[in-house]
Specification:
Neurolysin, domain 3; two-stranded antiparallel ribbon; 54% helix; alpha+beta; 29 helices
C-alpha cells in the first residue's frame, strides 16, 4: 500500500494571496528543512531534523506557496498551458518537500510531539488546499486553457496534466458559490483532523496492549522462534517472562500456534476491539463522522454519494460496477469458502475439539490442518527465508527483469538505526533512485506495510529529478540466537511492497503528479500484486532461498508443497477480502446521515460473507485505517480489482517465460515507467495486447478449471 500523506492533505494545488513576512528569524535561517540538502542525492538530512523545525518550516512553505500562486493570478498575459497549468504543477515545491518528510515519519517514526504538530498543521494545509480550489481567478485561468485545449498543440502527457488539473478544481469545490463554499471549507477541515485522529487512535490502541505470560505451560504449541521473540519483548519492557503484542510478528504466530484457547480468545478480542474500547482512543463515532462528512461533501459537489464522487476518478467509474464486481467474486468464492470452513471445523472435531469453531480458533486449526495436509508450515519454511537472503533475491529478480543494481550507501542519513539505504542504478551505472528499507516493528511505527516516496520523478528546469523511495514493513525481528527469519507471508508482503517501489523508482515523466504511483487508485496495486506471483516460482526461489545454517538450497519437494498449498483456504481468504470491500462501500454509499451504531452497519454489510460467528463488541470499522485514514475510501475493492489485472498480466509471463526479456521490457516501459501519464486501460492494453479478463484470477484461485 502506498501512502502519500502530503498529497492527501494537498489533493489540490495549495494557493491564495498573502503578504510576505520579511522578518525571518534565526530559527528559520538555521532550519535544515529550509536549507539546501547537501546530502547524497539531496536526501533528507534526518540526522539534523528535530521536532522544533517542523512548524516554522511548514509556515514558510505555506507562505512561499501563496506567493507563487500570486504570480499566476496576477500574470497579465493570456492564460496558457505554460504560464498556468505547468506553473501550477510546480507550485508548493518547498511545502511538498517538508510535508513528505514530516508525514512519512509520522507513520514510520512518530512520537507524541509529532502527533500534536500534525493536528496543528492539518488545518493549515486544508485551508491552503481550499484556498486554491475555491479561488475564482485561478480557476478562471485554468478553465480558459482547458476550454481552448483543442486549439493548442499538446503531447499526451500535457493533455493528461491539463485534464487532471481542471478536474481537480471541479472536484474540489471550484464551482461552489456563497454559503456552499463556507460549508465545503468546514467539512474538509473536519475530515483532515478526524482522519489523523483515527490513525493516531489505532496506533495508541495497538501499542497499549501486552499479554504477559509467566507460566511456561501457557507457551504450549508456540515455536522456539516465537518464544524467543516474546522473551526479548519482555526484556525490552522490563517485564518477567514472555510478552506478546498486537503487532503482526507477535500476534499472527500466537494465534496460529498457542494451544491455550483462553489466551487466543483474549488476544483476538484485544486485536479486534482496537478503537472500540470506550476510552479516549475510541474510533466508532469518528468512523461514522467521517462517512457522514464525506457524504455531505459529495452532495455539495453534486454527487448522490461519496462513492459516486470517488469512483468517477477510478477505472471502475461508478458504484454499480464495483458492486457487480464484488458480487461476481462472491458468487465464485462462496461455495469454496464454505467448504474451507467445514473442512477446518471437521478437522478440529477429529482432534477432540468439542466447542463451536470461533474466530480465535480459525488460525490455530487451519494451520494444523495445513501442516498435516501439505506437510508444510511457517516454521518449516522460515530457515530458507533469512531476511538478508530475501533482500538479495528480490534485488536479483529486479536485475533479471529490468537490469537494476542496488548498492548500499551508508553515507545517506537515516531516521532510525534499523533503516538501510541503497543507490539504485541501471546496468550501465546510470543513477535511478534512492531506496530506504525499514523492516521491524516498533512503538513509533504504524502497523502493516507500505511504500511511499520522499521525492517523485519530474523534470525541473530541464533537469531530471530522480525519486527517493521508501519501503516500510513490520517483519519478524532477529533474536539473540537467530537472524531475522521471515515467514512465507512476510516474504510475499515484501515482494508486494517492492512492486510499488519499482513503480516509483522506474518512473519516467515530466510532471511529478503523473509519475510513479500517482495513478488511478484501482490501478496502483497492479505492480505490487504482480510481484507476488514470483513467490511460488522455482526459478525465483532458487535465486536466494537457502537454509540460513547449512546454506542448502530450498528442496524441490518444499517448493512443490508451497505451490500445492498456495490455494489452501483461498475461498475463505477471498470472502474475507470481499467483506472489507463491502464494508467500505456500505460506509461510502450512504444517502442520509448514519445514526445507528457502527456495529450495526458492519453486521449488515458483512453478513453474507460471514463464515464464522460474529462477536459482539468486536469490529473492523474502528481500526480500518485503509478507508478512514489511508486514502482507500470507496477504493478498498481495488485490491481485488488489481488481482484481475495482475493474474492476467502474469499469465503472459507464464506463457513466454517468467524471465523473458521482451515481456519484462514491455511491462517496464508500458506499466512501470508510464505512471499516470496515460489512462491505465490504454497502457495496460498496450502491454497485454488485449483487455483483461477475470478468468486468469478465477483459475489461479482454483474457483474455475
Amino acid at each position: 500500500m502506498k501512502i502519500n500523506y502530503i498529497l492527501i492533505a494537498m489533493a489540490i494545488f495549495v494557493t491564495t494571496s498573502c503578504k510576505q513576512n520579511n522578518d525571518k528569524n534565526s530559527s528559520i535561517a538555521d532550519n535544515p528543512l529550509l536549507q539546501e540538502w547537501k546530502t547524497p542525492h539531496q536526501t533528507p538530512p534526518f540526522d539534523k531534523i528535530k521536532n522544533e523545525h517542523y512548524l516554522p518550516a511548514f509556515d514558510e512553505g505555506i507562505l512561499q506557496a501563496r506567493q507563487e500562486i500570486d504570480a499566476i493570478i496576477n500574470n497579465a498575459d493570456t492564460p496558457t498551458f505554460e504560464n498556468t497549468i505547468e506553473t501550477l504543477e510546480r507550485n508548493g515545491t518547498l511545502l511538498k518537500k517538508i510535508g513528505n518528510v514530516f508525514f512519512n515519519l509520522l507513520s514510520a517514526e512518530t512520537n507524541a510531539e509529532m502527533q500534536q504538530i500534525a493536528l496543528q498543521i492539518q488545518p493549515k494545509l486544508t485551508e491552503l488546499a481550499n484556498d486554491i480550489s475555491l479561488n475564482e481567478k485561478l480557476f478562471e485561468r485554468v478553465k480558459t486553457v482547458y476550454d481552448n485545449r483543442e486549439n493548442i498543440n499538446l503531447n499526451t502527457e500535457q493533455k493528461t496534466l491539463l485534464e487532471k488539473t481542471y478536474k481537480d478544481f471541479a472536484r474540489n469545490g471550484a464551482n461552489l458559490k456563497g454559503n456552499e463554499r463556507d460549508e465545503y471549507r468546514k467539512i474538509t477541515d473536519e475530515l483532515g483532523t478526524l482522519s489523523l485522529k483515527f490513525e493516531q487512535n489505532v496506533l495508541a490502541e495497538t501499542n497499549a496492549y501486552i499479554l504477559n505470560i509467566t507460566d511456561t505451560a501457557d507457551l504450549a504449541g508456540l515455536t522456539e522462534t516465537v518464544i524467543e521473540e516474546a522473551a526479548a519483548t519482555s526484556k525490552s519492557k522490563n517485564k518477567e517472562g514472555w510478552s506478546f503484542t498486537l503487532h503482526a510478528p507477535s500476534y499472527v504466530p500466537f494465534m496460529k500456534y498457542a494451544e491455550n484457547r483462553t489466551l487466543r480468545e483474549k488476544m483476538w478480542k484485544a486485536y479486534n476491539r482496537r478503537g472500540a474500547n470506550g476510552n479516549e482512543n475510541d474510533n466508532r463515532e469518528i468512523a461514522k463522522q467521517l462517512a457522514n462528512l464525506r457524504m455531505k461533501m459529495a452532495n455539495l459537489l453534486g454527487y448522490k454519494t461519496y462513492a459516486d464522487y470517488a469512483l468517477e476518478d477510478k477505472m471502475a467509474e461508478n458504484p454499480e460496477t464495483v458492486t457487480k464486481f464484488l458480487n461476481q467474486l462472491f458468487d465464485a468464492a462462496k461455495r469454496t469458502g464454505e467448504k474451507d470452513v467445514d473442512e477446518v471445523a471437521n478437522y478440529a472435531k477429529s482432534k477432540g475439539f468439542t466447542e463451536k469453531l470461533m474466530a480465535w480458533d480459525w488460525s490455530f486449526y487451519s494451520e494444523k490442518l495445513k501442516a498435516e495436509k501439505y506437510n508444510v508450515n511457517d516454521e518449516l519454511l522460515r530457515p530458507y527465508f533469512k531476511l538478508e537472503n530475501v533482500i538479495d533475491g528480490i534485488f536479483k529478480l529486479s536485475d533479471t527483469l529490468y537490469g537494476l543494481k542496488f548498492t548500499e550507501n551508508k553515507e545517506i542519513p537515516v531516521f532510525h538505526p534499523d533503516v538501510k539505504t541503497y543507490d539504485v542504478t541501471e546496468s550501465d551505472g546510470k543513477f535511478l533512485a534512492v531506496l530506504y528499507l525499514d523492516f521491524f516493528p516498533r512503538e513509533s511505527k504504524n502497523g502493516g506495510a507500505w511504500m511511499t516516496s520522499y521525492r517523485d520523478e519530474k523534470i525541473s528546469d530541464g533537469k531530471e529529478i530522480r525519486p527517493i523511495i521508501s519501503v516500510t514493513c513490520n517483519f519478524t525481528k532477529p533474536t539473540e540466537t537467530k537472524p531475522a527469519l521471515l515467514t512465507f507471508d512476510e516474504t510475499e508482503t515484501f515482494l508486494h511492497e517492492f512492486g510499488h517501489a519499482l513503480h516509483g523508482m522506474l518512473a519516467r515523466g515530466t510532471y511529478e503528479s503523473l509519475t510513479g504511483t500517482n495513478v488511478l487508485h484501482d490501478f496502483v496495486e497492479l505492480p505490487s500484486q504482480f510481484m507476488e506471483n514470483f513467490c511460488v516460482e522455482k526459478q525465483f526461489l532458487d535465486m536466494f532461498a537457502k537454509h540460513y545454517e547449512t546454506n542448502e538450497l530450498i528442496p524441490q519437494q518444499l517448493i512443490d508443497k508451497i505451490i500445492t498449498s498456495k490455494n489452501y483456504n483461498e475461498g475463505y481468504a477471498t470472502l474475507r477480502q470481499l467483506s472489507f470491500g463491502m464494508l467500505d462501500m456500505a460506509y461510502h454509499s450512504i444517502t442520509s446521515e448514519i445514526t445507528e451504531d457502527a456495529e450495526q452497519i458492519e453486521k449488515r454489510a458483512m453478513q453474507k460473507t460471514q463464515l464464522l460467528p460474529a462477536i459482539d463488541s468486536c469490529l473492523m470499522s474502528s481500526s480500518f485505517t485503509h478507508i478512514f485514514s489511508g486514502g482507500y475510501s470507496a477504493g478498498y475493492y481495488g485490491y481485488k480489482w488489481a488481482e484481475v489485472l495482475d493474474a492476467d498480466a502474469f499469465s503472459l509471463f507464464k506463457k513466454n517465460g517468467i524471465f523473458d526479456n521482451a515481456t519484462a521490457t514491455s511491462f517496464r516501459q508500458n506499466i512501470l515507467e508510464k505512471g499516470g501519464t496515460e489512462h491505465p486501460s490504454i497502457i495496460y492494453k498496450r502491454f497485454r495486447g488485449q483487455e483483461p479478463t477475470i478468468d486468469a484470477l478465477l483459475i489461479r484461485c482454483g474457483f474455475k478449471k
